Every structure is written in structure tokens, then in C-alpha cells.
């Protein structure tokens, strides 16, 4: 009879340990999604009318029209990206209007972009030249790739048509 008590006690201890290990792995598991912000800034300096108006939308959500009347203003809207789906982008289309013309920008973000641009560190900036991307990108020219700051023109302004 003593042998059965020890067997049952050992089995109970193993079962408790298995339950504790499985509950710890569930608690330590990373979430399956990551939050990211798309940031739009106004940098239309040197103009009489430096304001921009824009509207961003995705397949599932329309963020509405926004107006930034002064350079230096910014607006961020959150998006959620699924981990492990680095090839499936979240696509947003943004329509910009300014005194210099119009621009329609397609923004594709993946989970890897969210890793590169934490806390709105990457932005799409409206400048007199057009829409400029300011953020981080991978530099593969070195032996060990690292993130480097970049700035490039994504899209120039399309001038308004002449009115007669």
C-alpha cells in the first residue's frame, strides 16, 4: 500500500509541474500583433499658405479628413500589424491637398516596419517639394546590417490645373 501512495504522490507532483510549466509558457508568449503609428507632419515652410489637408484610409477603416494649418503640426493614427506575416502589408492610401497641388500616397507597412519605427519615429512629411519619408531603414552595405536614418522624396506635388 505504501508503494501506491508514493506512486500517486509522484504522479501528482509531475502533473503539478507540467501544469506550472505550460502556464508559464502561455504567460511568457509574445503577442501575435504589434501596434504601429503612421505619422504625418506639416513642414510647408516659406509659403504664404502653409496648410495641408489630408485623408487616410485602409480597406477596413477611414481616418477622415485632417487639417494642419501650421508647419510643425503632426498627426498619428494607430494601426495593428500581425507578427509573422512580414510579407502581408497593411495598405493605407492618403490623399494630400495643399496650395502647391495634390498627392496620392500609398503607404505599405509590414511587421518589420513596425520593428524599425517604434513610437512614431518614422514620418511622412509634407514639404514644398512633396511628400518626404523621414525614418529608419536597414543598411546592408556593412558586414553587420544596422538601422540608419534616411530621408527621401516619396512623391512630388501634382500642380493644380490652370483655371481660365
From TrEMBL:
* Alphabetical keyword list: Signal
Q: Which domain of life is it from?
A: Eukaryota
Where is the secretion signal located? 1-27
- Tell me what this protein is called: S-protein homolog
Organism source for this protein? Eruca vesicaria subsp. sativa
Amino acid at each position: 500500500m505504501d508503494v501506491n501512495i508514493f506512486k500517486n504522490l509522484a504522479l501528482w507532483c509531475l502533473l503539478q509541474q507540467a501544469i506550472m510549466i505550460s502556464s508559464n509558457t502561455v504567460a511568457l508568449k509574445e503577442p501575435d500583433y504589434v501596434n504601429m503609428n503612421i505619422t504625418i507632419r506639416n513642414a510647408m515652410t516659406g509659403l504664404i499658405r502653409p496648410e495641408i489637408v489630408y485623408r487616410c484610409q485602409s480597406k477596413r477603416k477611414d481616418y477622415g479628413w485632417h487639417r494642419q494649418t501650421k508647419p510643425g503640426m503632426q498627426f498619428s493614427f494607430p494601426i495593428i500589424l500581425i507578427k509573422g506575416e512580414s510579407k502581408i502589408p497593411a495598405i493605407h492610401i492618403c490623399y494630400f491637398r495643399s496650395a502647391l497641388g495634390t498627392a496620392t500616397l500609398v503607404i505599405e507597412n509590414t511587421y518589420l516596419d513596425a520593428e524599425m519605427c517604434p513610437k512614431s519615429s518614422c514620418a511622412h512629411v509634407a514639404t514644398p517639394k512633396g511628400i518626404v519619408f523621414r525614418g529608419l531603414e536597414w543598411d546592408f552595405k556593412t558586414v553587420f546590417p544596422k538601422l540608419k536614418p534616411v530621408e527621401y522624396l516619396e512623391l512630388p506635388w501634382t500642380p493644380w490645373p490652370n483655371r481660365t
